[in-house]
Amino acid sequence: MAFRFDENKYRWVPCTDEHEINAPIEELPYVLSLRYSGESGIAKRSDSAKGYVLCPYHRRLEAVAQRFSNGIRSVCGCKICGISNHDTFDLSQGQPKPLYIPFRWRLFQRTPDGPLNVAADVAEVRYDPEGVLLRWHNFALSAWAARRRWEFTRIRVDGRLQPWTECTDIAIPFEVTDRAVEALAKGVECSCGIRPSVLSCMHGASMLTAYIERPFDLHIVYLKGFLTHAVEDFDETFPYEETNPYRILCQCLDIHPPKSVRREYTYHPYAVIWYMLLRQMGMREVSLMQPFFELGFYIGEQEISEFYFDPKTRRVESGNSGNRPLWLAMEEHAVWLCRQKGEKALAGFLWEYYVCGEMTQCHKDILLNFRRYGAQLTSEVKSLLLREGLTQYVCDAIAWEVEAITSEDEPQRILYEPKILRYECCVNGYAFRLIHHTDELAPIGIALHNCLASYRRRVMEKSSIIVAVCIGERYVACIELDRRCHIVQALGKYNRRLTGRLLAVCRAWAYYMGLHADADDFDEVNEADEASKHFDEVVITSIPYRRAMEEVAPEELETLPEGEIEAGYYRLLGDYLARSAHCIVDAPPWKQFQGEMDYLMYVFPRGERIYRAALGGSVEAARVLGLLYQRGRLMRCDVQRALYWLSWAADHGDVEAALASERLQRAISSGSMERDLAILRGIQELRRRFPMKEGRV
Question: Whole-model pTM?
Answer without folding.
Answer: 0.69
